Predict the 3D structure of the following.
Amino acid sequence: MLNATICTIGDEILIGQIIDTNSSFVSKELNKIGVKVDFMISVSDKETDIISNLKRCINISDIVIVTGGLGPTKDDITKAALAKLSGCTEFRYDIEQLEIIEALCKKRGLELSDLNRDQALVPVSCTVLKNTLGTAPGMMFSISKNEGTTPSLLFSLPGVPYEMAALIPQVIQNIVDLNNTETIFHKSLSTFGIPESVLARLIEKWEDGLPETVKLAYLPNPLTGVRLRLSIYGGTKDLADEIVNPIIKELKSILGNALYGENEDTLEHVISRHLRNATCTMATAESCTGGKIASMITSLPGASDIYKGSVISYDNDVKFDLLGVDRKIIEKYGAVSSECVLAMASGVRSLLKADYAVAASGIAGPDGGTPEKPVGTIWIAVAGPDFCESKSMTFNGDRQRNIDRFSSEALNALRLKLGIQLI
């Protein structure tokens, strides 16, 4: 099976100024064609570091994908480093990329500078991957491992995520054309409401009975729950399906409604899909979550089909004036209470004429807690045509983690009332 290393170049990654999203994207695309990613590394904007680290990557990998360091400024030195690494001293202008650069500058009303023009200057040792969205082309090199005769394919791509992503199909095609690739099979199952340690104990016997060819990974996330990823390396997709399907059927019988989706499914995905199929709508009333629940729902295309809107009632006057919460409720029970969220859910459902509603009020922290209602306390309510129910939970996290947990728990409460589970 082909293996790969992904390398990001740039001091901005190493100092935490930006988050590396390129590596996860590239890894997913390589997995689809049966290339197993063994390593991900980040390297500074220093020529000697780039060359020494990439030499090591080439010696241990069939495929090396490099992103970053291809801009027009002096700190972008990846191209020069790759030329040295490939033993090349000559450069040429790639005419097609130069034409793209000229057109982009003209479209943006910019004068074509030498810095822009030199973006099309590439080592003669590379094959150019045309970049239609930016000025820096992608490059493909074939470099011998350990100075022997077996080559590794090295691809250098721009660090700008949307430019990099647009070049990946060319990368994939070259890998497939030049190598015999195998199948990597992944199947992810989404669970919610069971902590990772409890889940592990619950399915321990099932896990012990997995065939040796099936690898299991636990992937916890406060917004999506714990994903269980089943992986098979090699073979065919049909064979993998034949092995995995009875395993999944057994897991469903163990986990019941805690199992809600497959692969990339999230709580907002399955809820939106269910409401769309039922021709129903929902609304949200949020206090401590500040619009996070609404953001999760509206992050999906076509959300307007099922989502009416939200009232972010952070101030109590908004709860009174827009949601119709009785002032006596706040005076007697407080804003973080069953009575308050029930009134919020009922109020926003009526106000926005939605079929279902979710409401949340809690204490995200770091301040505001009391012995009776400590930081991390959340009250959630869900309302529908024939019900209005509430529940309380307490979490132990920082402000952002609490907000994430509050929001996902609110959506999960609605999911359970809608009866959504993986069947």
Remarks:
- The chain has a mean pLDDT of 95.
